[in-house]
């Protein structure tokens, strides 16, 4: 509701209050200001905006100052409740319930007004509680990251589930094909249907009545994303997910389906066979793993974090950093000191400028991985970074290990070295004192707005999804 509309409700109540004090009827006051009683009534009910000249006339007729008439305060306690009720009934939250508007008159008992207002307050409180605030979202995300760190980013149950599903689809070796993904869906009793009109707020929609999984058109570039999306949709079924009851549960389900899809595209046995051979030959490289399984560099790097500690006897870290140095995703169980905010959250924090995740952007040859040793207060790390770009800008994907484990990786002989003293701010966050004394108070930069990584999802039956669109979509397709 616009503040203007809400002010009109207060204004109307103030006019009615002063009119009552003067003992005037609507028609009597109307006569004095040249308005029909019915028009004055509309103004008192906040449904018509009076002209300034009318207001001046009304103020004069009631013997009050115009400023007094325009005050934003309710004239008395009952009026305050009535104003609050009128506003609440105009709120879309109430409108969505499809219930009638209650018109309060002089004869309405005070207890009835108090009761209605109390219910509206509770409705508003519950609605705001259901929406995950950015703080809640960040906290849930941090807790999940810590949980996965404790588990070395490894989930044996989902590994086994994916392995069984992939084997049953007839897959033998190499990259999982679209055909094999379809077979997996068929075994679950679902058919994969590619459509052009998926609701904007969804990545896929599953019709549980007609057993169909709707996906975006098969012809979109980078079709490997499509296999992953189909697998994620199947993951919800296979893992028995119910509608998430909280934001934390929503994130947990997301993590599980992503894990399932990755474990199906890069099955444990085949991946370990590939990675163990590479390790033995001291030729480990994310780019090779990526190419062998036909996935993105990021997917391969993340998959390595699932298997490295539990099966390859390595600790490691993973970073996805944007062109401006902000951390979008991060994982470590090797002690690399990730930048954190006061809540322990890492997303959106800037990583050290000396780290390979950032220095790779300035490196000229970007077709292959960039390798670097970095001395940090927590020891020396070796990192391999691959840069890329999307419509949203540049990004880098890094995987790294403590110095002693670099010997298994291609690129270990790099002569590229850097020293990082972060979180000490004099490392790369604080300008040199002679420079800052020259410029302090003489610069006015304008910040670029950060599209936040963890903005809260709109509330709804499914977080972040417009269910009306989804149901309409299913209606349209179920008839086919
Ligand atoms: Zn630094």
From TrEMBL:
Gene3D superfamilies: lambda repressor-like DNA-binding domains (1.10.260.40). One of its GO terms (molecular function) is DNA binding. Pfam families: HTH_31. Transmembrane segments: none annotated. Keywords: DNA-binding. Residues 15-69 form the HTH cro/C1-type domain. One of its GO terms (cellular component) is cytosol. It comes from the Bacteria. The keyword DNA-binding applies. This is XRE family transcriptional regulator. It comes from Cryobacterium tagatosivorans. The lineage of its organism: Bacteria, Bacillati, Actinomycetota, Actinomycetes, Micrococcales.
């Amino acid at each position: 509701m616009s503040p203007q509309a809400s002010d009109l409700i207060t204004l109307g109540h103030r006019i009615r209050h002063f009119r009552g004090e003067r003992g005037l009827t609507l028609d009597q006051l109307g006569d004095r200001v040249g308005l029909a009683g019915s028009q004055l009534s509309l103004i008192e009910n906040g449904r018509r905006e009076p002209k300034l000249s009318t207001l001046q006339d009304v103020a004069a007729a009631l013997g009050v100052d115009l400023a007094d008439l325009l005050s934003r305060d309710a004239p008395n306690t009952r009026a305050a409740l009535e104003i609050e009720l009128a506003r609440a009934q105009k709120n879309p939250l109430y409108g969505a319930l499809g219930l009638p508007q209650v018109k309060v008159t002089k004869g309405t008992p005070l207890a009835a007004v108090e009761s209605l207002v109390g219910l509206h307050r509770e409705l508003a409180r519950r609605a705001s509680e259901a929406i995950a605030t950015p703080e809640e979202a960040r906290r849930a995300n941090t807790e999940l990251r810590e949980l996965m760190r404790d588990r070395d980013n490894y989930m044996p149950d989902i590994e086994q589930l994916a392995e069984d599903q992939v084997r049953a689809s007839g897959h033998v070796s190499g990259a999982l094909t679209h055909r094999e993904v379809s077979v997996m869906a068929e075994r679950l009793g679902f058919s994969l249907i590619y459509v052009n009109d998926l609701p904007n707020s969804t990545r896929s929609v599953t019709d549980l009545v007609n057993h169909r999984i709707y996906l975006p058109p098969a012809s979109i570039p980078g079709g490997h994303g499509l296999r992953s999306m189909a697998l994620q949709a199947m993951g919800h079924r296979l893992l028995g997910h119910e509608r998430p009851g909280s934001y934390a549960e929503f994130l947990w389900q997301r993590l599980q389906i992503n894990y399932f899809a990755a474990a199906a595209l890069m099955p444990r046995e085949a991946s370990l066979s590939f990675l163990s051979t590479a390790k033995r030959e001291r030729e480990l490289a994310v780019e090779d793993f990526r190419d062998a399984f036909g996935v993105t560099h990021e997917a391969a790097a993340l998959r390595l974090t699932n298997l490295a500690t539990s099966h390859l006897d390595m600790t490691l870290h993973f970073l996805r950093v944007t062109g401006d140095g902000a951390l979008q995703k991060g994982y470590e169980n090797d002690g690399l000191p990730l930048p954190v905010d006061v809540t322990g959250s890492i997303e959106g924090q800037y990583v050290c400028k000396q780290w390979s995740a950032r220095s790779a952007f300035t490196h000229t040859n970007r077709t292959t991985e960039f390798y670097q040793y970095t001395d940090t207060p927590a020891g020396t790390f070796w990192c391999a970074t691959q840069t890329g770009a999307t419509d949203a800008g540049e990004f880098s994907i890094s995987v790294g290990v403590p110095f002693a484990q670099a010997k298994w990786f291609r690129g270990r002989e790099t002569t590229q070295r850097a020293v990082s003293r972060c979180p000490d701010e004099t490392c790369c966050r604080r300008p040199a004192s002679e420079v800052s004394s020259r410029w302090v108070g003489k610069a006015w930069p304008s910040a670029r707005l950060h599209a936040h990584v963890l903005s809260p999802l709109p509330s709804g039956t499914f977080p972040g999804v417009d269910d009306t669109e989804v149901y309409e979509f299913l209606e349209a397709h179920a008839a086919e």
